[in-house]
Automatic annotation (TrEMBL):
InterPro entries, alphabetized: ArsR-like_HTH, HTH_ArsR_DNA-bd_dom, Metal_resp_trans_reg, WH-like_DNA-bd_sf, WH_DNA-bd_sf
Swiss-Prot/TrEMBL keywords: DNA-binding, Transcription, Transcription regulation
UniProt cross-references to SMART domains, sorted A to Z: HTH_ARSR
Protein name per the record: Helix-turn-helix transcriptional regulator
An MF annotation (GO) of this entry: DNA-binding transcription factor activity
CDD domains hit by this protein: HTH_ARSR
Residue ranges of domain HTH arsR-type in the record: 1-95
Species, as recorded: Gluconacetobacter johannae
Length: 117
């Protein structure tokens, strides 16, 4: 990931509703949620959700797929992984022991075979 891509993703996540949307969709991986379900769960008007979903999609943080009349949105976990790696790539000046708590915290969220593939 380059600096411009990271800034685009961070900018998209810097608004509270978009951050809530992204976190909700991360919790609903791998199935994703329809746009209307996202709106209902977060109690946000449908037209407002559409704008936020579009912003997150342009930033590469979400993917969407049409199923009949519904559009299902999913968190792009590989993009999340790339962003996280970009942020910590030079962690602790190359001292792995200083980064160990961060790595342990991230590793405990889910098995490597399921997370961020």
């Amino acid at each position: 990931m380059d600096t411009e891509s990271a800034l685009l993703a961070l900018s998209a996540l810097s608004q509270s509703t978009r951050l809530d949307i992204f976190r909700l969709l991360v919790r609903h991986e791998p199935e994703g949620l329809a746009a209307g379900d996202v709106a209902r769960r977060l109690d946000v008007p449908q037209n407002t959700i559409s704008v936020h979903l579009a912003t997150l999609t342009r930033a590469g943080l979400l993917t969407s797929k049409r199923h009949s009349r519904l559009i299902i949105y999913r968190a792009n976990l590989s993009r999340l992984r790339d962003l996280m790696l970009f942020l910590v790539r030079d962690c602790c000046a190359g001292s792995p022991d200083l980064c160990a708590p961060l790595v342990a915290a991230l590793s405990s969220c889910c098995p490597a075979s399921e997370c961020c593939s």
